[in-house]
C-alpha cells in the first residue's frame, strides 16, 4: 500500500488487483492527479476502506477468492455514498454485465486500457462523486428546512380548505354521501389509517384530500400515487426512493413519496392492485415508520398518515390469498365506502351543474347550462363510470354544442337510450335473453322512441315525422311505454 505525502490535497483512488505489474502501471498513470492506494486482494481492500475515505475504486474482475463484481457489490452495500466505482476487466459476458448493474458500477473499462482513457475515466468518476456529495448536502439542507419549506401560512391553509374541504364535495340534501362525509370529518382529526372503498370515478381522492385539510397535518403536503399505474419495481422506487446507480437509468438520487410527504398525508389509490411481494415491503414501512430507498444502505425515518383506496373488495382478496391480511388490518383502521352515482341519483343534478361550470370555464364556453329536459335525460342513465363518466359526457357535449344551452342531443347515444351496459351502438345487447319475439321487439321499440323524444326535446311533430308515425300513433305508443310525460 502506497500513497504520496500530499494525501489530503488530492482525490483518493483505490486500485485492487492481484497482479503486481498491473497495480504498478495503474498507480504510475494516476499518481500525479490522485492519491493512490493499492490492494492485492478484496480482503485487504476492505480493511483499507474501514480506515480511509476513498473517492474511486478500480478493481480487476479476475482475482483469486472473489471476483471484482462480487467485491464491488459488497462495497456498494457498505459505502454506497462515499465511493464511486470503476471496474477494470477483459470480459463482457452476460453474467458480468448483470453483475455490473447490480453492483452499481460507474464504468466498465476493457483491457488493454490506454493511460489517457484510464485517466479521463477516473477524473470523470471523481467529478461525479463530487456532484453526488453536493447533491446529498443540498438535499440535507432542504430536509432540515422543512419548517420553512413545508409549513404553509394560515392564509394558504384556509384557502386550501375552502377549495378542498368537505363542503366542496357536491351532494344533495339527504344524499347517502352525507353520512360518509360526516364520518370522514370525525376520523380526519385522528392520526389513524383510513381505507376508502368505492367504484372508480366516485371521488375517493376528493374525500381523502378533504380529510387531509381537516386533520392536524393540514399544513403538510398531500401526495398521491396510483398503485395500478406503474409496475411493482418502479412503484417501490416511487414510494420509497432510490439511490444513484441503484439500477439502470438511476442517474441521481430520488426522494420517494413517503419522504416527500413527511409531515403530511400519502394517498395510495388502487392499493388492491399491488402484488403480495410489494405488500410485504409496504407493511414493513407502515410498521417501522421508515423506508429503505432502493440501493440504499440505511433506512430513512418518515412521518406520514396513509389513506388508501381501492375499487376492489379487499376482504375477498384476502380470502383468495391475493392481499395480505396483516396489511389489510394495518391500512383499514377505519373503512369508508363511497356509494356509486346510481345509488345517489339526487346528486346527479347538482354535480352535473357544477361540472358544467368547471368544464365550461376550462374550454372557454361561458354561460353554458343544462335545461330541464337534458337533466331528465342524465337522471335516466345508470352512469357506470360515475362522476368521471359524467364529466367526460359534459366535456363532449360542450365541445359539440354551438350555443350555451346543452341539449340532450349533444350527449352520446347510450345516455339518450338510458343504457349503461357499455354497448351504445348495439341494441341487441339490451334485449332480454328470454321472452317472445314480440316482447323483445317492444324493448327495442321503447328504447328507440325514448332516444328520439330526447333528441328532439319532446317535439312530437318532429318525432312523428322521423319515425314515420301519425301524431295519434305516436301518442298511443308514448302512453303504452309510459313516455307520455318528460
From TrEMBL:
Keywords: ATP-binding, DNA-binding, Nucleotide-binding, Phosphoprotein, Transcription, Transcription regulation. SUPFAM superfamilies: CheY-like (SSF52172), Homeodomain-like (SSF46689), P-loop containing nucleoside triphosphate hydrolases (SSF52540). One of its GO terms (biological process) is phosphorelay signal transduction system. It holds the Pfam family Sigma54_activat. The modification 4-aspartylphosphate is found at residue 60. It comes from the Bacteria. This is Sigma-54-dependent Fis family transcriptional regulator. It comes from Hydrogenophaga crassostreae.
Amino acid at each position: 500500500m502506497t500513497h504520496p505525502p500530499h494525501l489530503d490535497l488530492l482525490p483518493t483512488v483505490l486500485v485492487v488487483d492481484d497482479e503486481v505489474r498491473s497495480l504498478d502501471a495503474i498507480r504510475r498513470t494516476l499518481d500525479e492527479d490522485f492519491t493512490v492506494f493499492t490492494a492485492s486482494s478484496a480482503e485487504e481492500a476492505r480493511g483499507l476502506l474501514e480506515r480511509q475515505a476513498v473517492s474511486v475504486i478500480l478493481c480487476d474482475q479476475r482475482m483469486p477468492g472473489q471476483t471484482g463484481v462480487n467485491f464491488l457489490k459488497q462495497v456498494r452495500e457498505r459505502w454506497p455514498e462515499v465511493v464511486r466505482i470503476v471496474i477494470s476487466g477483459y470480459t463482457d459476458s452476460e453474467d458480468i454485465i448483470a453483475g455490473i448493474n447490480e453492483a452499481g458500477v460507474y464504468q466498465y473499462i476493457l483491457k488493454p486500457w490506454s493511460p489517457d482513457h484510464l485517466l479521463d475515466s477516473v477524473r470523470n468518476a471523481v467529478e461525479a462523486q463530487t456532484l453526488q456529495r453536493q447533491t446529498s448536502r443540498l438535499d440535507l439542507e432542504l430536509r432540515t428546512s422543512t419548517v420553512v419549506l413545508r409549513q404553509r401560512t394560515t392564509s394558504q391553509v384556509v384557502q386550501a380548505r375552502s377549495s378542498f374541504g368537505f363542503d366542496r364535495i357536491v351532494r344533495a340534501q339527504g344524499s347517502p354521501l352525507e353520512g360518509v362525509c360526516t364520518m370522514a370529518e370525525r376520523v380526519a382529526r385522528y392520526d389513524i389509517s383510513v381505507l376508502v372503498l368505492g367504484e372508480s370515478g366516485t371521488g375517493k381522492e376528493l374525500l381523502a384530500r378533504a380529510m387531509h385539510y381537516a386533520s392536524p397535518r393540514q399544513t403538510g403536503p398531500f401526495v398521491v400515487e396510483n398503485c395500478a399505474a406503474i409496475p411493482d419495481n418502479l412503484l417501490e422506487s416511487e414510494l420509497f426512493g432510490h439511490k444513484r446507480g441503484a439500477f439502470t437509468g438511476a442517474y441521481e438520487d430520488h426522494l420517494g413519496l413517503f419522504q416527500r410527504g413527511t409531515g403530511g398525508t400519502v394517498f395510495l389509490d388502487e392499493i388492491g392492485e399491488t402484488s403480495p411481494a410489494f405488500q410485504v415491503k409496504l407493511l414493513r414501512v407502515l410498521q417501522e415508520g421508515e423506508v429503505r430507498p432502493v440501493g440504499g444502505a440505511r433506512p430513512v425515518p418518515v412521518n406520514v398518515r396513509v389513506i388508501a383506496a381501492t375499487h376492489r373488495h379487499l376482504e375477498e382478496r384476502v380470502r383468495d390469498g391475493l392481499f395480505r391480511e396483516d396489511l389489510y388490518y394495518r391500512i383499514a383502521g377505519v373503512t369508508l365506502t363511497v356509494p356509486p352515482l346510481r345509488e345517489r341519483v339526487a346528486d346527479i343534478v347538482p354535480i352535473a351543474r357544477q361540472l358544467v361550470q368547471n368544464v365550461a370555464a376550462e374550454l372557454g364556453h361561458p354561460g353554458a347550462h343544462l335545461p330541464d329536459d337534458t337533466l331528465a335525460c342524465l337522471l335516466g342513465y345508470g352512469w357506470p363510470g360515475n362522476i368521471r363518466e359524467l364529466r367526460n359526457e359534459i366535456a363532449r357535449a360542450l365541445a359539440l354544442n354551438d350555443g350555451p344551452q346543452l341539449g340532450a342531443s349533444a350527449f352520446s347515444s347510450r345516455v339518450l337510450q338510458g343504457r349503461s351496459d357499455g354497448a351504445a351502438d348495439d341494441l341487441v345487447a339490451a334485449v332480454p335473453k328470454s321472452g317472445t319475439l314480440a316482447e323483445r321487439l317492444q324493448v327495442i321499440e321503447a328504447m328507440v322512441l325514448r332516444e328520439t323524444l330526447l333528441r328532439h326535446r319532446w317535439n312530437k311533430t318532429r318525432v312523428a315525422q322521423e319515425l314515420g308515425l301519425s301524431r295519434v300513433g305516436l301518442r298511443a305508443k308514448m302512453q303504452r311505454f309510459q313516455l307520455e310525460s318528460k
